[in-house]
Amino acid sequence: MFQHPRGPRREDGPAALRSPLLDEFRANKTRKWELRDIFGYIVEFSGDQHGSRFIQQKLEGATSEEKQIVFDEIVPESALQLIQDVFGNYVIQKLFEYGTQVQKTALANTMEGHILQLSLQMYGCRVVQKAIEYVLPDQQASFVKELEGHVLKCVLDANGNHVVQKLIERVSPDRLGFVHSFRGSVYELSTHPFGCRVLQRCFEYLSDDQTRPLLDELHKYTTNLMQDQFGNYVVQFVLEHGKPEDRMLIISKLRGQMLLMAKHKFASNVCEKALITADEENQRLLIDEIMTPRADGFSPVVTMMKDQFANYVLQRALSVATGEQKKLLVAQVRSHLTNMKRYSSNYTKHLVASKYID
Length: 358
Prior knowledge:
Blueprint: H1 20-27, H2 42-46, H3 49-60, H4 64-74, H5 79-83, H6 88-98, H7 101-111, H8 115-119, H9 124-134, H10 137-147, H11 151-155, H12 160-170, H13 186-190, H14 195-205, H15 208-219, H16 222-226, H17 231-241, H18 244-254, H19 258-262, H20 267-277, H21 280-291, H22 300-306, H23 310-320, H24 323-339, H25 346-353
InterPro entries: ARM-like, ARM-type_fold, PUM-HD, Pumilio_RNA-bd, Pumilio_RNA-bd_rpt
Domain PUM-HD: 17-357
Pumilio repeats: 37-72, 73-109, 110-145, 181-216, 217-252, 253-288, 289-331
């Protein structure tokens, strides 16, 4: 076994003076340093920008013996400190990646009882996510148990939401009872910058039994969500990845509203996604709605050509239309383009340059 020279640890905090060894390491770039050269100083080096990077690189190819020495210097006394450290957290993540299962379990044991605090902390949340990937299912379940009762707080937190997303991605759905707490909050989650991401992960990974109540709740607010800066992404996700019946329900809310929604900054994205994902019949009906002039002669196509958002929806309609409908739509756009030279805006230029009206 390698001998451990005794060296200062970092319990005194980041303001403590650097050891002579760390000073030499930072100054001497020509020396070929090895992990064994810094044994006894692993915690201090882990908390230093250059030392942390060195340890991370060396752990990838370290022997079992070297990894054990690094592990023993950190766990358990200094694990929590480094998990929350700007540089130290990366060393802990490497231990989860390259350590033995026994080491990973022991490292995760030091986190138990602190999962909520770590999940809400800028660096700790990264380590919790990494741990979720590498620990055994029973330990994943104990992480989940610690967060129960606090999940909505985590979802709405800039750091915690990433932990909840990782749990949904990696943990068996039958262990994720906390999803019940999202019921009654679907609108709030959908319109939140972090909540909208968590909902999308739910729809992507969870069982039908868990997602059906959330989707049923979502459908009550579809029209408002289409027009929300975050909610529109949730609606788009369901259009792209959801079941046909959920897609149909969303498209039914667009019918009769295409022009209005196409002119909206956020809902226009939903219109485009609907045109791409709709079945043939609904796609035809949505495009017909765009093409059909009103009784007073008002032309939706002309309005869309001039509008900063709707012109993109019109381009999308041109790209997905087929057969006779496409010919008619192209003819309409061309006829108006010749009359709109005075509107020579960026929006009409997009259409002039479009390959779909050649």
